[in-house]
Write a structure and sequence with these properties.
five-stranded antiparallel sheet; elongated; ATP-binding protein
Length: about 70
Amino acid sequence: MTKSAVPRRHLPSSPFKAPVEPPVRRFDVGDRVSHDQHGLGRVIGVEEEAVLVDFGSVQKRVLSPYGKMSVL
């Protein structure tokens, strides 16, 4: 059985709690970050749906939702 790509909506009459959406991560220029694949870096640019990070040897554009990246 395959899982649907569309999330189920929560009905107000449901006895179960509504699923909690994770907070949107915000990054600012100059933030030190850690990425699971690329290691330590510094944010050098912020866009609407992505951030540009300098990892020393390479600059990468990391797209939202930033699952593999965290602020130090």
